[in-house]
Amino acid sequence: MRKPLEGIKVLDLSTFVAAPVCGRMLGDLGASVIKIERPSGDAWRETGKGFNRKRFNDDANPVFDIYNSGKKFLAVDMKTPEGMEIFWKLMDEADVFLTNNREGALKRLGISYEDVKDRYPRLVYAAVTGYGDKGPDASTPAFDVTAFWTRSGFLRDMSPGGEHYQPMMPPSSAGDTITATNLCVQVCAALYNREKTGKGDFVRASLYQAGIFTFASMILSTQEPAHLQYPRERYLGTASGGVSGTYQCSDDEWIFLATAGNIAYNPKIFRMVGCPDMAEDPKYVDRQYCGNVENATALFNFLKSKFITKPCAEWLALGKEFDVPLVRMNHFKDVAEEEQAWANGFLEKIEYENGVSLAMPTSPFIMNSVGEIKTKPAPRIGGDTREVLLNMGYSNEEIDKMKEAGVLRTCD
Questions:
Q1: Are residues 190 and 323 in the same domain?
Q2: Which DSSP state fits 226?
């Protein structure tokens, strides 16, 4: 089976999550990816271990592996002449250059897009930025927690309002993976266009822009003249007819009932909770009536009194029976046990040599031309340095000399 990007060579000079995820995705599609780390390693290695230092270490670092699976790892000090020589030799063979280094750092090394575009006219130069190329914050350091989650408005406005309001704490890396997907799509499009034109491209994905686009519905609906107000104690939007939201069950589990603004679901919902008379009442499917805040609040409180009478499992069964979009509100820890996820191959079992075993989320790509994609644990820092350099024509003696000089790092 020949994968779509087989034969494409990617040089990955990136750290943390967003750009590395793009490299992993390109590798999943068949590209050959070489990642350059500094001799001390990508800082995300230590961050990954920090998620659970009792189980995660240099031998089992799944939070690092999932974003870097399938790559060859080369540890080189690019601040040395020898390190830069290795870099340029790899660039000579690259179809894609991937980075999330800030523009100033790239210029100091002489590897910004402007520095290389004439030398490599067929190169697809792919960059992740925090806040974009222009404006007062273009050079400001950024992570997904700041540029994606915070600047977009999500953390400030999605916490429940009220007397005890506090801004929400962000999930880790979610904004990075969304940004990476954006960049991966652009890289693939640029490679396709190169086949037609022979020319490379400069493609960028910004964490801030990804946040703005992801939360577009909220950004649009809160502009003047004001429509929706955030933060809120619960969703009282006119579109949902007052029934969408979170409800507690008798066993202290929680469910989420969603209608996506389609009040045609209301009769099904009223039948599901045992109120067929309400299902036949035209006013409960009238958008003007249901969209009134006072009526919406009354409907919500009515359903709240119904859902608290049965355990979660019963409501889930009734939701399927009445074809209503109702789900249990999982904890993160629950996902690893989900039959639906395992049935579709969204999770796989990973066992490390040191005995750590866990459910690993799989690649998001599902393509007949790609087949099953397994997550591969990454080697330690410099794990592939010798192999990569030998394939480039360096001798073992030259590699050992550079190792002794601190230019590079190997695992042997």
A1: no
A2: P
